[in-house]
Amino acid sequence: MPTFGSTPTFNWYEWNGVNTENEIAHDLATMPAEGDITSISCYFGGDGATVQAKLCIWDAATGLLLAATPAFTASAGSRAVGGQAWQTQDLSSPLHLPAGKQIYIGWWRAPSGSAVFSTNNTSGNNKHKTDTSGSPGSLSGALNDTGVIGAYATYTAAPPPSGSRVWVTATAIKISYPA
């Protein structure tokens, strides 16, 4: 299935402690085609121990939480470049988005734990926010930090409307939708 988001070559790592910066997101991702997001993957780990987490998608325009996976135990990571693991979780129900929708992809972790993650700090940003409410919340007001994190979504593109026809020639694609 197709994916979109960020899978950078890592050259740096960061960590966040208890009750600090427990919502982290990729700076911006754009849904490439109308469809359903079915799973989320993020590169991080608990700082030397496992940590409770949820993988999340936030609306880029409003910061509102659009979807989160069920809680899971993220594996322990180390304070080293690439010393963590890809955490992949399915959404309980697919999140349907239109083509071009801009979102943030990332994670929330329990404020009582800490996390470590790798970045590429030569370009791009990530968002970070402290939310000690006990569950993921709005990303509105999040701060920017230098470094692209590993975060992507897997989706299924929506099929064309029922009854539509597609013609493919050497120079063009024509789609006819039912009236």
User: Strand percentage, roughly?
Assistant: over 45%
CATH topology: Jelly Rolls
What is the gyration radius calculated from CA atoms? 18 Å
CATH class: Mainly Beta
CATH architecture title: Sandwich
Query: From the helix content, strand content and strand pairing, which structural class follows?
Result: mainly beta
- What is the 3D form? globular
In helices, the fraction of residues equals under 10%
Element order, helices and strands? EEEEEEEEEEEEEEEE
* First-to-last CA distance: 30 Å
Pick out the low-confidence regions. Answer: none
User: How many domains make up the 3D coordinates?
Assistant: 1
What is the residue-mean pLDDT, rounded to a whole number? Answer: 92
Structural description of this entry:
The chain has 179 residues and is mainly β. The model has no long low-confidence stretch (mean pLDDT 92). It contains no helices and 16 strands. The chain has strands at 3-6, 12-16, 23-26, 29-30, 35-47, 51-59, 65-68, 72-74, 76-77, 85-97, 102-109, 115-129, 143-149, 151-157, 165-168, 173-176. It is globular and about 55 Å long. The protein has a single domain (3-176), classed as Sandwich (Jelly Rolls). The strands form 2 sheets. Strands 1, 2, 3, 4, 5, 6, 7, 8, 9, 10, 11, 12, 13 and 14 form a 14-stranded mixed sheet that branches.
What layout of secondary structure does this protein have?
Elements (H helix, E strand, L loop, with lengths): L2 E4 L5 E5 L6 E4 L2 E2 L4 E13 L3 E9 L5 E4 L3 E3 L1 E2 L7 E13 L4 E8 L5 E15 L13 E7 L1 E7 L7 E4 L4 E4 L3
Parallel strand pairs: 5-9
Antiparallel strand pairs: 1-14, 2-12, 3-11, 3-12, 4-11, 5-10, 5-12, 5-14, 6-7, 6-8, 6-11, 12-13, 15-16
